[in-house]
Specification:
A nine-stranded antiparallel β-sheet has the order 8-7-6-3-5-4-1-2-9. It contains three helices and nine strands. 23% of the residues lie in helices and 30% in strands.
């Protein structure tokens, strides 16, 4: 995977829903030695999936929204609990925002399959309180290649 693309994935700020309000986090933190110090959501298994802009190709808003809705419907039919979340660049002048789905309890292999079907470069999963960027596009790298990050909770 291109190093600048990987850096942007690791620095992306994710805004997740939580009981105490939006939880803002990224994958560019320091190693966490005590996972119990993380917010509860980040200690549980989940995947973050999107259908927007396959292979980084900008699509019209209506096309992206239709694809994203189809993904949500398939996830719900798969009996997953799904919540809306968003990834964005922290730069105040940045304009990139990508709606995503927080999919509770989804395993790695199924998340990779969704990423491949919807032609995403990579997906985000969390297992054992460790976030991972996993390649799902063979033109970026080997499918399933994993880049491990560390949670950084942002204010």
């Amino acid at each position: 995977m291109d190093q600048s693309l990987l850096r942007s994935y690791l620095a992306t700020v994710y805004e997740f829903p939580s009981l105490t309000g939006p939880l803002r986090t990224s994958l560019d933190g320091d190693i966490v030695t005590d996972a119990s110090s993380l917010p509860e959501l980040l200690q549980r298994p989940f995947a973050v999936l999107t259908a927007f802009n396959p292979r980084s190709m900008l699509l019209p808003r209506k096309v992206n929204e239709a694809r994203h809705q189809v993904m949500r419907d398939l996830l719900i039919l798969g009996v997953y609990r799904v919540e809306a979340c968003v990834g964005y660049e922290e730069d105040p002048e940045g304009t990139w925002r990508e709606p995503s789905w927080l999919v509770h309890g989804m395993d790695r292999d199924e998340a990779i399959a969704f990423g491949r079907v919807f032609r995403q470069n990579a997906i985000l999963t969390c297992k054992n309180a460790r976030p991972e960027i996993i390649v799902t596009d063979p033109t970026c790298d080997d499918i399933g290649k994993t880049y491990v990050g560390n949670w950084r909770v942002r204010s």
